[in-house]
Amino acid sequence: MTSLKSLLGAAVAVGISAVSAFAETPVLRAAVLEYGTVNWELDTIKHYGLDAENGFTLDVQGVAGGSAAQVAFQGGTADVIVSDWLWVARQRAAGKDFVFIPYSKAVGGVLVPENSSAQSLSDLKGGKIGIAGGPLDKSWLILRAYAQQEYGMDLAAQTEQVFGAPPLIFKTALSGDLDGAINFWHFMAKMEAAGMRKLVDVADAAAALGLDPETPLLGYVVKGELLRDNPDLIHGLAKASRGAKDLLASDDAAWERLRERMKASNEAQFDGLKAGFRAGIPAAGPVDEAAADRMLQLMARLGGADLVGEATTLPDGLFVQPGS
């Protein structure tokens, strides 16, 4: 009887210890756009247990827009959001201790109707261009600088611009009401699948301007305080993200389980979205900070304080580098 009691006591102790260990696993709350493409990576992290493997539990909170994510993040109800590092640079220059973990280098471009005779941006002179976002959209600014450099063309003055949300630009472009359209990469993939033709890629325009198209633009944003207090947690997120990328880069089966979430209307869209995501996966390793600084200085020149605030050069400590 004593032996049985001892065994039962040991079993209870082990059970309590296991529950305690589980309870101590940190939870990382991510506020992201409910239908954003980052969910493909986050879903992969959770499905394959890459969060648990790296010492945390990922809690994904869907939000309606980027501003809602920023409010949740700055208000303390979310630990991580997705944004571009230019926004993080602006916040750091304003005294906010935010840091950036690279996620994607995917950018958009200019598409034209399938039957368009345009062969370069200069051929859009006098035409109507739809632009996802506003006048400070980074792709638009890069393309303006590119048109000026390559063709001596003031793209803003010599075309008519229609600004709108990505879905609106998508629909308007497919209706044939635009001579050209600038959209986010995943809408571009669907537009190309529908027959539109790429006129110029923002990555190519950036390279022509002396920028490095390999510089990741989007990433996970966390507070520097969390990085200092729990570096293993933040580096665990970075490792889980890389693990998901490695899977999605090489395993078609990992994409099949995401098919419904991707909302592709047909096989061409599905293939285009998969290819676009894979093309946007940044190389492993540290971010080239000199290249990032060149991009920031160009954005400061083109967009001014309205875009970058007081961040005219790259703030120290912006990027979470491997091993930092």
From TrEMBL:
Protein name: NMT1/THI5 like protein
SUPFAM superfamilies: Periplasmic binding protein-like II
Keyword Signal in record: yes
Domain of life, per lineage: Bacteria
Gene3D superfamilies recorded: Periplasmic binding protein-like II
Annotated signal sequence range: 1-23
Keywords for the protein's UniProt record, in alphabetical order: Signal
Domain SsuA/THI5-like: 52-250
Biological classification of the source: Bacteria, Pseudomonadati, Pseudomonadota, Alphaproteobacteria, Rhodobacterales
InterPro entries for the chain: SsuA/THI5 (IPR015168)
Pfam family, any one: NMT1
